[in-house]
């Protein structure tokens, strides 16, 4: 039997992904530290081929430009990215991906949630990538905070985790600044010496740092 937390999460994610083709598009505002809206999180919806033309090509280019951030080395194409979106993002009930959109319409990057544990009321920050490297200062922090706020207040998660390659020091520093603490190393696979660092949000400290959102 599906309990209330699981039902809430699945219903919210399905609505934001517009699983019902008649559902209206819903976006999340991105606020800076002064509570000015600087952009919004635009979900990848089931009808993205119509409403986000060129999205697979853009995501493939970003992925190829940032291949070092993933343990899997391959050249992404529009076709492979479309397959990934259809089968591994949209088809998964416990995953959602947002484009990070600036006020001027620029697609700055993407970020999502995945791997919900309905018993523990936890999830993971997923697929964090900045595609546009210049301009829009602080946008990734503001986008991360908007997503965390939504997760805590609307989805009612109690625990937020993430995994980052242990040698990606820049990303680890970014997450540390945003109140994620180190938990443990997780092997990428038994045949390599690569590890993920699992990190967990210190919710209490995050709320202190982002009291302006509440």
Short recap of the structure:
The protein has 214 residues and is an alpha+beta fold. It is built from 7 helices and 8 strands.
Question: Could you characterize the architecture of this molecule?
Answer:
- By secondary structure, the chain is an alpha+beta fold.
- It has 7 helices and 8 strands, in the order αββαααβββαβαββα.
- It has helices at residues 4-16, 48-51, 55-65, 78-90, 139-155, 169-177, 203-209, and strands at residues 28-31, 37-43, 96-102, 107-117, 122-130, 159-165, 180-187, 195-201.
- An 8-stranded mixed beta sheet has the order 1-2-3-4-5-6-8-7, with helices on one face.
- The longest helix has 17 residues, at 139-155.
- The radius of gyration is 17 Å and the shape is globular.
- The model has no long low-confidence stretch (mean pLDDT 94).
Total strands: 8
Largest sheet descriptor: 8 strands, mixed
Instruction: Name the assembly state.
Output: single chain
**Could you tell me the radius of gyration in angstroms?**
17 Å
Number of helices: 7
Strand content: 25-35%
Spans where pLDDT lies below 50 across 5 or more residues: none
Task: Write down the overall mean pLDDT.
Answer: 94
Helix content: 25-40%
Class computed from helices, strands and strand pairing: alpha+beta
SSE run: HEEHHHEEEHEHEEH
Strand order across the largest sheet: 1-2-3-4-5-6-8-7
Shape: globular
Cα separation of the termini: 33 Å
